[in-house]
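Q: Please design a sequence for this.
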């Protein structure tokens, strides 16, 4: 079933986006923050917002879209622990660096402006999911500046 915020399995190059980074890296990546979620005994839904970027990135527009994204995911992968486990088993997305011999899964949903990286730990006794949110415009601008700087250094070395 096609939805507005379709999830796709993360690529190996995206694996770093699913974990907390130092504040400089978070800023360069356009990280707004993350939602930490768990299902309690399996069917509950507890969540906490953790800001990681400048407050102005946590705009009303972003908050509205984040609410839509989480609501949509609550109808599928975030419905309950059993649904998450089933989704992960059937959709790939295994991330490197699983802990304690257990697999961790990563999925990405994107809108025109934002990137949402959902890290899933479908096991009882853990926080079950982290949804890290990025401003794609900030991320792309910083990547372009970084590529320009590298090109200038390389050109300077050719002279």
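A: Design:
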């Amino acid at each position: 079933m096609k939805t507005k915020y379709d999830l796709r399995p993360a690529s190996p190059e995206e694996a770093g986006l699913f974990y907390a980074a130092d504040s400089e890296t978070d800023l360069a990546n356009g990280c707004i923050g993350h939602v930490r979620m768990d299902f309690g005994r399996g069917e509950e839904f507890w969540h906490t917002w953790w800001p990681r970027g400048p407050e102005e990135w946590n705009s009303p527009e972003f908050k509205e879209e984040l609410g839509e994204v989480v609501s949509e995911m609550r109808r599928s992968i975030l419905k309950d622990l059993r649904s998450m486990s089933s989704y992960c088993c059937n959709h790939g997305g295994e991330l490197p660096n699983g802990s304690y011999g257990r697999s961790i899964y990563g999925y990405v949903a994107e809108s025109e402006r934002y990137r949402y990286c959902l890290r899933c730990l479908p096991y009882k006794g853990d926080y079950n999911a982290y949804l890290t949110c990025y401003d794609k415009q900030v991320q792309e601008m910083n990547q372009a500046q970084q590529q320009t700087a590298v090109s200038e250094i390389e050109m300077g070395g050719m002279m």
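Q: Thanks. Anything notable?
A: The longest helix spans residues 136-158. The chain has a mean pLDDT of 90.
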